[in-house]
Amino acid sequence: SVDLCSPFRPQSAKSLLHHVAESAASDIDRDVYGVGTSLQQFEKQIANTLGKEQAVFMVSGVMSQLIALKIHSLSSAGEDKTSFLCHSTSHLLVYEQDSYKHLLNMMAVTVGEKHRALTIEDFIALPSEAVAKAHTIILELPQRENGGLVPSWKDVVAISEFAKQRGIKLHMDGARLWECQPFYSRDYSAICAVFDSVYVSFYKGIGAMSGAMLAADADFITSSKVWQRRFGGNLYTVLPVTAHAQDCFNARIHTFRERYEKLREVVAALTEWSEAQQDTLGYRPLTFNPPVPQCCMVHVHVKGASDVILAASKVVAQRRDILVLNRLRPLLGLAADCSGLEWNMGTENMSIPSSAFVEGWKALFAVIEEAK
C-alpha cells in the first residue's frame, strides 16, 4: 500500500516500545528526578545544536513555555510588566485553556494580523503603553495556524533588536523549528542566537513519542529546573521518552532539507494538476496555504464537504491501495465549500514519487465526481 499522508511509519504501541528498547544504547542509564548521565548528554547535545549554554528536558511544550514566561517576567524591571506579546494564533492562546492567565496571572497582547506572518512593522505600530507593560515577546517559528508561514529573517532580527532596546525578552516557540531551518538556510545556532530562550519539540517533525527541551543561558536553566519542580514536571524518571526522543533526533535531524524540497516539489505538481481541472471539473480541487511551502508542512484547502472527502479517500484505499488522507481539520481562511488538511512531509512519505501524489488525488476526485 501507498500512504501519502503519514510523515512517519505508523507503529502499534507494542512495536514502538520494542523499537525503543532495541535502539537504546547499551550503556544508557535511567535518570532519577532529572539527573542521569544519558539525559545530561542529550540535554548538552540539544544545547550545542541550538547554540545555547544549557538545555533542560521538559515533559511538554506547554510547561516549557509557561516556565519561560515566568522566568522572563521575574527578570524584568518593574512590577507593571504583566503581559507578553504574541501572534493571535499562538499556541498559548488557541490550545492551552488560558493557562498563562490562570497559572501565571498574565495578560496576552496580540500583535499583527491573523492570516499572515509577523513583521517588525506590527510591533512598531503597537501602542506605547502595551509595549511598556510587556516582559516577553513570543515568536513562533513557523506559524502553524498559517500553514507554516515564517517571518522573514530581516524581520526576526529587527524584532530581536526592538525587544532588546526596550528591555523585553524574546522567546521562540520552536515547536517546529526543525522544519523551517531550510527556509532560512542558517544553522540552528544562528537562528537561535537572536532569542533569549528557545523551546523545541521532539514529537512533531522529529517523530518521537513525546518530549521537549527548553534552552537558554545557564542562569535561566537553573531557574527553569526550580519552576519545573513547582509545576510538577520533574518526574521520577523520563525514560523511555528521552531515549526515543534522542534516537529519533539523531536519525532525522539531517532530513529536513530533503523533506522541505520534496514538499515544495509535490505542491508544485499538485497545483499544476489542480489548476488544469478548472476547465474539466469547473473548479480547482486543491489550493495551498502558503502557495509555496516555507517549511516541511503546508495547509491544503480541499474542495468539498469533509464527510464526502473522507468517504472518497476510503474508496480509493480499497480500490487502489492508496491512502490519500486519513483526517481533516479546521483551518484559517477556509471557504465554506472546502475542508482543511494539515499536511506534513516526513521521512516516510518523502520517498514517494511526486507522480504518485497526483495520481492519488486524481483518483479521489474521480470517486467524488462518480458519486454526483
What portion of the residues fall into strands of 2 or more residues?
Answer: 15-25%
Sheet with the most strands: spatial strand order: 2-8-7-6-5-3-4
Describe the largest sheet: 7 strands, mixed
Which structural class should the secondary elements be placed in? Answer: alpha/beta
Topology, number of strands: 12
How are helices and strands ordered from N to C? EHHEHEHHEHHEHEHHEEHHHEEHEEH
Give the overall form.
globular
Ends distance: 27 Å
List the main descriptive attributes of the protein structure presented here.
single chain; 372 residues; alpha/beta; 7-stranded mixed β-sheet; 3-stranded antiparallel β-sheet; 15 helices; 12 strands; 45% helix
Descriptive report:
- By secondary structure, this protein is an alpha/beta fold.
- Helix content is 45%, strand content 16%.
- The protein is built from 15 helices and twelve strands.
- It has helices at 13-23, 37-50, 61-75, 91-94, 99-104, 120-124, 128-132, 153-165, 177-184, 188-192, 218-230, 241-252, 256-281, 306-320, 354-370; strands spanning 2-3, 54-58, 83-87, 107-111, 134-140, 169-174, 197-201, 212-216, 286-289, 297-303, 322-323, 338-344.
- The chain has a seven-stranded mixed sheet with strand order 2-8-7-6-5-3-4, with helices on both faces.
- A hairpin with a 7-residue loop joins strand 9 and strand 10 (297-303).
- Helix 14 (306-320) crosses helix 15.
- It is globular.
